[in-house]
# Entry
Amino acid sequence: MIVADRKPLTEILKMIEAEKKILIVGCKGCVTVCNTGGLKEVEILAASLGIARKKENSALTIDTTIIERQCDNEYVAQLSETVNDYDAVLSMACGVGPQFLSEAYPDQKFFPAVNTTFYGGAVAHGIWEERCAGCGTCIIHDFEGLCPIARCAKSLLHGPCGGSSQTKCEINPDTQCIWDLIVSKKMELGKLDDLLGVRELRDWRSARDGGPRRSIREELTQ
Amino acid sequence: MRLSYPSEIKVLQVPCTGRVDILHLLKAIEDGADGVYVAGCLEGECHYLTGNIKTKKKVTYVKQLLEEIGMEPDRVEMYNLSSAQGGRFAEIAREMTEKIRQLGPTPIKN
# Structure
């Protein structure tokens, strides 16, 4: 899923300081699963902003809603009757949400209430970790299911580097060196020789380096 | 025991403090409560194992939210006591009331 974190309340309050009536829109997709922009978090944000503005004696009317996904126009269209009744709209979806909303309703102001961080999963309750970099050319099968692109700080394909120490990465003592894990797993499986080969230069155009990407599935287009 | 505690306190019963939600605490503050506290079982003695521990984290989260928006985090508190400690319940009620009195009325204007 796409993982996000709520922006600091001070930053959100600054965005909407001139507004008197706002709508907060949640998303039932990834941000609900990572407990950042689901119905509960929308209500918590509404209550927090409400308290902050009442404290300053600057009343703010806040309505809340949630749609199935902010990254699908058919769901975004569900807001058409109400979205222009507000001074501004806060989106609690990933960065895709406020963009789809802005494109669908050009007369309205949309603000992102979250910072979108990475593609990952929950490793424990309340803890998410990055697992995918969306590089466009998946090679995890060569590394026993461990992605060196997303999980190595340098995205090395011939690791580990000299910064690997006691299984940890030099960037942070809490960060696992993924190359340490890859080598350990290959040794365990008796497949260490797999790592002796030299990989061809990687074409990074399939990743962000090639510019904004687009996926067209002819069988689905209308 | 017929113990008395400050009449300003409104008691809301829940089956376990684990049921207390971040939103319950925030809504109370938003609606104008001067302070809110959760009186849970002693740590390690929750009938549902970790209800009080979970809510302790929720209380900490609400304190952080209040701090972020420039409100005194001490307006929200978590206490632990057993259901047999009537005396402690009254003492906590007095303690919290006194703390809130020192902070003054809520800055929230409804």
Residues 17-102 of chain B form one domain. Chain B is about 40% helix and 10% strand. The helical segments of chain B are 22-30, 51-68, 86-103.
